[in-house]
Amino acid sequence: MSGEWEKCKFAVVTALPKEFAAMLAMLDDARPITVFGDPNDYAMGRIPAIDGTGNHHIAVALQKKPSNNSASAVASHLSHSFPHLEHVLMVGIAGGVPHPTDADKHVRLGDVVVSDQNGVVQYDHLKLETHQVLVRSAAAPPSAALLGKVRLLEAARLAGGCPWEAHISRAVVEGAARPDASTDRLFVAGVETPHPIDIFRRSGHPRIHYGPIGSSNALLKDTEIRDALRDKFGVRAIEMEGSGIADGTWTAGLGYIIVRGISDYCDERKNDMWQGYAAVASAGYARALIESFTVITDPVTQRAASLASQTITSATSSAVPNRPSGICASTAFSISSEGQSRSPAPSLVNGPGDTAFTRIFDPAHSAASVRVIASTPAFAHAEWTTPGLPVVA
Predict the structure, then answer these.
(1) I need a labelling partner for 339 at 20 to 30 A (CA). Which of 32, 87, 272, 303 fits?
(2) Tens digits of per-residue pLDDT, 232-287?
(3) Which residue, of 261, 291, 321, is where some domain finishes?
């Protein structure tokens, strides 16, 4: 089992048993595990990468109770128990924020909301002044890696590809069936209001939305507050764990993203009818997101190479006058545990201007060979490779 922990780069956090069950339904060979010294409740399973490079090993955690504080604690324990963890997904249900006058922004029951680059709005983090109350939310944004894959999934959707729909249909979980559309009733100022006509909505399937997600430790059943969050911050969904995950992963140096299935409208008519389907819808999207990543078989080498890539990107570029442009030279680096490059430094790479690479290091991990090819000054081409692994751009 410890070998699988070493390979675990993805973790999913859930707040409710029905969310936990929905996520397990998306995994292959899911089974409960116990991590010595960690109070979290876990299961592990696999998700095959769609590019055929192997299986992602996924840890799924169930919070002791729904709240931002609990979510932050779970994220902290995850970072200690899974040493090569990189990505944390908060997956489950939330209240939707409708927009009856704008079909493109109108969130309905059964839809999925994914946090965008604006991340989470912690609307109970307040500054109380004499004549006003100010929201002081400053949560870290989701990771660039996860946001990038979300954008690729959206591009695929525009071309007709919706892999999460097949994943939703595979779930055998109590309450997973999609309720009849007649139960999706919207009220504005106490009056039932028709949903706006949406020519891009596919009947019987969730629409995927992207935007900030409101989060607090309070269960919201107030349409005025809901709509104020929509109008001021562009919030698309409201829940009780997102800011805890954002803070906990930021502290641990991990990336995160929030994926929410919509089960109610944060009003006094809130009920459980859509919760099962909403949980499965969010889990189905989470599987589609995870499987879009390539599997790197050696996480230690991958982390070293990732750091090398970051160092290359930020290396000093200094133009050398009158140097001819031509084929870029290759320079071999070896990342050592002492944190020093074993190649001569700086090394010059020929091109329309030269780049001086000073050193590439990762003090926490063992040696890995890195090949650097770069066009300067804009780095039109840069790549690394390690023995036994394919080149990764």
Answers:
(1) 87
(2) 999 999 999 999 999 999 999 999 999 999 999 999 999 999 999 999 999 999 99
(3) 291
CATH number at residue 171: 3.40.50.1580
Q: Please tell me whether residues 287 and 305 are part of one structural domain.
A: no
Q: Which domain holds residue 54?
A: 2-291
Element (H, E) at 99: none
C-alpha to C-alpha distance for 264 and 120, rounded to whole angstroms: 19
> Using an 8 Å Cβ cutoff, are 18 and 176 in contact?
no
* CA-based torsion, 27, 30, 32, 33: positive or negative: negative
Residue 256, burial from CB neighbour count under 10 angstroms (0-12, 13-18, 19+): buried
Question: What is the per-residue pLDDT across 324-352, written as a single tens digit (0 to 9) for each?
Answer: 333 233 333 333 333 333 333 333 333 33
**Cα separation values, 251 from 149, 255, 323, 360, Å:** 23, 10, 45, 24
Nearest to 274 by CA among 182, 375, 351, 140: 182
- Write down the pLDDT at residue 74: 95
Vertex 206: Cα angle to 85 and 118 (nearest 5):
50
Beta strands in 123-224 (DSSP E): 126-128, 133-135, 186-188, 191-193, 208-215
Could you give the percent of the chain with pLDDT greater than 70? 70
Give the count of beta carbons closer than 10 Å to the beta carbon of residue 60: 28
pLDDT band at 309 (very low <50, low <70, confident <90, very high): very low
- Spatial separation of the C-alpha atoms in residues 64 and 71, rounded to whole Å: 9
Question: 330 and 249: one domain?
Answer: no
